[in-house]
Design a protein that fits this description.
Blueprint (H helix, E strand, L loop, with lengths): L10 H21 L7 H19 L6 H8 L9 H22 L7 H12 L34 H14 L6 H15 L6 H14 L6 H4 L2 H6 L1 H12 L10 H39 L4 H11 L5 H8 L3 H13 L3 E4 L6 E4 L1 H12 L1
Antiparallel strand pairs: 1-2
Length: about 375
């Protein structure tokens, strides 16, 4: 058996990779371990965007706001129970990715793929969580498009083992984004499980990148791009795969597509940082003008970012007691900077129109 070979280097690809390196070094400087306190909210938003992107590709749609709530352990009314279970499982798998990325003793193995598949698909018994598929399958590609025929199940264990061996020892000198793209392509083409192969391939891609150690998994993910460009994603994947598993086919177009997705997402993240710096300065000035304690800057910033704030959120971020957190949030509500939504355990605070307009005015000025 064999896998898709990593395409040869080209001057055009190398130029884009050098551009990506520069962007990611910039991001690592501002989003690394010594980053500003407000980067925690950015990371939570990035995790939600990655989750929305990956799960929406397979038909499990939820809004970004609802996904933030699900990742925080809450149960928004706007998402079905099934979607909430799928999103929570995806988040659990990505939590495992973060742990493995920091484990210096981690070695790739076929069991890695089985374990990650179990985590991401355990709410779906029909997917055979953590078990390789049996028999032949045909992957439909939509109306008017030819189906895809993966390898027979008898070849799958050896092929998954080859992927693990290659990840552990093969092409180690190549750029991580290239290796990650090839891992994604090989896994989704082998189609080792009944269902969830795309999610598993994208999670493995994120783990390959996270093992590089430059940025956290949610910050190197291209799932948001894939979710917004699903048609292009499938088009290039189908063109490279062909009608059936054939690792002799040229994977260059796939690698180029993934690199462009990484560059696009890195530019977006840089834009995030530029706005985040301005927003944090605005919140510091506002808190100072109002005579607020410094800990309220984070609450104002999170609200403007679009993330609802709960008592638990503010208590954790500011390292304060629950009564103090309640007093802080009620003070901001009383002064017109936050609006209150829900009640009881569902109580949360969001940016008021007054706060949003003041922020918008500062930006236009």
């Amino acid at each position: 058996m064999a896998l898709f070979a990593t395409p040869p280097k080209s001057s055009a690809i190398l130029r884009r990779l050098e551009e990506l390196d520069e962007l990611r070094r910039y991001l690592a400087h501002d989003l690394g371990d010594s980053a500003q306190p407000w980067t925690g909210a950015l990371r939570r938003l990035a995790a939600a965007e990655a989750t929305v992107g990956s799960t929406s590709i397979e038909g499990y749609g939820a809004s970004l706001e609802d996904t933030v709530e699900i990742l925080a352990g809450r149960h928004p009314a706007g998402a079905s129970d099934e979607t909430q279970r799928i999103i929570a499982a995806y988040a659990q798998a990505m939590d495992r990715v973060a742990v493995l990325a920091d484990d210096t003793r981690f070695r790739w193995s076929a069991q890695t793929m089985l374990d990650l598949h179990f985590l991401v698909c355990h709410p779906q018994p029909q997917a055979g969580p953590g078990r390789l598929r049996e028999g032949s399958v045909i992957v439909t590609r939509g109306l008017g498009r030819d189906p895809y025929r993966p390898p027979h199940s008898s070849d799958v264990p050896a092929l998954v083992g080859e992927v693990a061996t290659w990840l552990d020892k093969g092409d180690l000198a190549r750029y991580p984004v290239v290796r990650a793209a090839m891992a994604h392509l090989n896994l989704v083409s082998i189609h080792p499980f009944r269902d969830g192969n795309g999610r598993l391939a994208r999670i493995v891609q994120s783990l390959v990148l996270a093992k590089e150690g430059l940025l956290r998994p949610e910050l190197v993910s291209i799932e948001p791009y894939l979710g917004r460009h699903t048609r292009e994603y499938y088009t290039v994947l189908e063109a490279v795969q062909g009608p059936s598993f054939d690792p002799d086919r040229d994977a260059s177009a796939w690698v180029e597509f993934c690199i462009e997705a990484h560059v696009f997402e890195a530019v977006e993240r840089r834009r995030w940082l530029e706005i985040a710096n301005a927003r944090h300065d605005f919140c510091e000035h506002l808190a100072r003008d109002q005579g607020y304690p410094e800990r309220l800057v984070g609450a104002l910033d999170q609200a403007l970012l679009g993330l609802p704030i709960t008592n638990a959120d503010h208590r954790r971020e500011a390292n304060i007691a629950s009564p103090t957190a309640t007093q802080d949030l009620q003070r901001l509500r009383h002064d017109g900077w936050l609006d209150q939504e829900g009640g009881g355990r569902s109580l949360r605070y969001v940016a008021s129109r007054k706060l949003q307009e003041r922020w918008a005015s500062s930006r236009s000025g």
